[in-house]
Amino acid sequence: MAAATCLLSSFVVLGWLLPAAHNAVSYWKADLVAKCVAEDLCSARHLAQLRSCKQTVEFDVDKDRYVVPNLSDGAVTRTCLSLKEWPYCASVVAADFNGHPTVTFNGWGIASEAGEVVIDVGGHRRHVRLEPTLGRISISSTLKGR
Predict the structure, then answer these.
(1) Is pLDDT of 60 > 50?
(2) Model pTM score
(3) Which residues have C-beta within 8 Å of that of residue 46, sequence separation ≥ 6?
């Protein structure tokens, strides 16, 4: 009887801990994915300045991915990052740069439009905001549905 009670209480504790642990992992993963998107926007901006030519970051909200320019062996290539796959397991809720899902940095690193990308991981949303002139990027969080 004592073993059954101990086993039952273990299941009750696990039933409480597992969702709480998953929620905590989703919270931190949302932060990391947002930082990854922010760093990729910064990299595209710096690459535009380095090469003195336009660099575009394209978001595909329907497929939860985006394409960024990448410097490889002195040549600029395009890299597609799918956020719905491991290790990100995130979704792109919105990408809006004045009505478009793309942002272009000119040769001086100035963005074509101000905008925002919204990332969701397990109900934890992060807003990655881009200021066009200075290229400042900020990250804020909201709960799903707000």
Answers:
(1) yes
(2) 0.83
(3) 109
- Compute the Cα dihedral for 89, 91, 129, 100 and give only its sign: positive
- Position 90 confidence tier, pLDDT thresholds 50, 70, 90: very high
Whether the predicted pLDDT of 117 surpasses 60:
yes
Whole-angstrom Cα Rg for the chain: 20
46, 113, 117, 96: CA torsion to nearest 10: -150
d(Cα 54, Cα 104) in Å, to the nearest integer?
A: 6
Average pLDDT taken over every residue of the chain = 85
Note whether 64 and 117 are within 8 A (CB): no
DSSP state of 97: B
Residue whose C-alpha is closest to residue 44's, from 53, 35, 57: 57
CA distance 115 to 137: 10
CA–chain centroid gap for 126, Å, is 7
Q: Which CATH architecture has domain 2-143?
A: 3-Layer(bab) Sandwich (3.55)
